[in-house]
């Protein structure tokens, strides 16, 4: 199946740099014309600032190893400010080391401590990860997928008959990963019992790209309104007595402890919680949506993945840890979906002269590595680089380690949630295809179009109005 892929999304060019759409269009045209013909960093002036654009995988590797002359710190500070954290909060989070992490472990700055707790929570093999998955996330997915017994009560169920259930795939992915997974972290049905909260989050998902741009206030009112509604709800959550939040995850409890230790305000704590929730769920539900979309439009792929999964299904239980490592067809589908959809990039500030690709990058400038170009580079992926090939990584598993494959970033800022995201998406897909026979409601339905006109901090959404409507019929339960 072929997915039409543009070479460039505005996000690739403008991530974390203030500019106007006209300037973005000009930059897009420049990169379109030039990036294929050079591996040396391109240098342009954008909104009064020098911007280097790196298109070589080797140069990107050098940048990622460099922690002395290029910096991500100012980008993080900017993100904290853009999300509305107070000046006092920014000073506290980036202040001197003051948070102990345990015996024989040096104290860290509050921000670094939060990131460390986040990493511990999401690293397989650690007790924090195993408990989160087995007792919170997997039951959340299972309960949501048991919607046939809800008699149409789930918001993504469009129609129910004795024989089958018709659902919106996009809405189902939102319900599981935007409502259910955050509640699993929070330890209570906060999203699910607060409809205004998850409605605000859905609004946020469609406008949060505006956080990245320094746009006039008149153009960000919808983003600010959604953001503040979420923050207000999180403040209310933080005011719930800790005894009533005893089922919260390790990360949430650790975040609470850090914020109390440094005397952060409830509002600033709520904003950090928003950022962390966004990091966990912001791309996960879209990866799941696109993966199932491809399966629904390719029955041979669907049957191949189902055949691979069924041996580990026992009654209504699936061996989750087995799925991602031992089911190459499923793994390849998810990895390839990320290759063709990720539309973000690496951004760093140059703080001292830095040689990259034979060119000296000057202090005070910014460097950008557009991952989308690396992911669609024919030199790395062959002539079918712009084609969605779900078995690409079955034929060559080593491609996942390619320098041109960076869905979770790279270097010391590699996303700590990468294992969680892939395993949660794998479990959802495995449960769906093992529990239900699925087909398109309309066999001639058009494949959903990716919205490449709207900047996306990661994986793009489908265009407004595009969805996949599935008819699901429960399969006979396998023998225990």
From TrEMBL:
Its cofactor is heme. The keyword Heme applies. One of its GO terms (molecular function) is steroid hydroxylase activity. PROSITE patterns: CYTOCHROME_P450 (PS00086). Gene3D superfamilies: Cytochrome P450. Heme binds at residue 415. It comes from the Eukaryota. Belongs to the cytochrome P450 family. This is Cytochrome P450.
């Amino acid at each position: 199946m072929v997915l039409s892929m543009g070479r460039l999304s505005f996000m690739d060019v403008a991530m974390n740099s203030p500019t106007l759409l006209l300037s973005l269009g000009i930059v897009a045209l420049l990169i379109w014309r030039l990036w294929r013909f050079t591996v040396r960093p391109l240098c342009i002036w954008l909104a009064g600032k020098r911007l280097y654009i790196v298109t070589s995988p080797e140069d990107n590797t050098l940048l990622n190893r460099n922690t002395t002359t290029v910096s991500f710190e100012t980008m993080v500070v900017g993100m904290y400010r853009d999300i509305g954290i107070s000046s006092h909060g920014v000073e506290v989070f980036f202040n001197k080391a003051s948070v102990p992490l345990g015996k024989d472990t040096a104290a860290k700055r509050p921000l670094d401590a939060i990131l460390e707790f986040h990493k511990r929570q999401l690293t397989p093999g650690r007790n924090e990860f195993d408990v989160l998955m087995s007792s919170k996330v997997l039951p959340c997915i299972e309960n949501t997928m048991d919607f046939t017994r809800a008699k149409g009560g789930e918001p993504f169920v469009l129609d129910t008959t004795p024989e089958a259930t018709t659902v919106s795939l996009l809405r189902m992915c939102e319900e599981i990963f935007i409502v259910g997974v955050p509640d699993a972290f929070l330890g209570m049905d906060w999203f699910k019992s607060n409809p205004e909260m998850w409605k605000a989050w859905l609004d946020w998902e469609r406008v949060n790209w505006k956080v990245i741009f320094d746009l006039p206030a008149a153009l960000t009112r919808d983003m600010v309104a959604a953001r503040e509604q979420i923050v207000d709800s999180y403040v209310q959550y933080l005011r719930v007595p800790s005894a009533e939040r005893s089922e919260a995850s390790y990360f949430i409890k650790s975040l609470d402890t850090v914020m109390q230790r440094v005397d952060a305000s409830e509002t600033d704590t709520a904003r950090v919680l928003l950022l962390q929730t966004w990091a966990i769920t912001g791309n996960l539900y879209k990866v799941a949506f696109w993966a199932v979309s491809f399966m629904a439009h390719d029955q041979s792929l669907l049957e191949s993945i189902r055949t691979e999964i069924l041996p580990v299904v026992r009654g209504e239980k699936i061996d989750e840890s087995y799925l991602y490592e031992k089911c190459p067809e499923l793994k390849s589908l998810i990895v390839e979906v990320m290759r063709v959809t990720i539309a973000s990039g690496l951004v760093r500030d140059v703080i001292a002269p830095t040689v990259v690709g034979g060119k000296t990058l000057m202090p005070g400038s910014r460097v950008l590595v557009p991952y989308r170009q690396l992911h669609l580079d024919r030199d790395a992926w062959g002539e079918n680089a712009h084609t969605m090939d779900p078995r690409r990584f079955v034929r060559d598993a080593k491609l996942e380690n390619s320098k041109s494959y960076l869905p979770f970033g790279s270097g010391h800022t590699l996303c700590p949630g990468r294992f969680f995201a892939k395993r949660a998406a794998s479990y959802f897909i495995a449960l769906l295809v093992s529990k239900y026979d699925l087909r398109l409601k309309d066999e001639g339905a058009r494949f959903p179009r990716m919205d490449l006109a709207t900047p996306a901090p990661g994986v793009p959404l489908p265009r407004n109005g595009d969805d996949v409507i599935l008819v699901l019929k429960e399969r006979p339960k396998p023998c225990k």
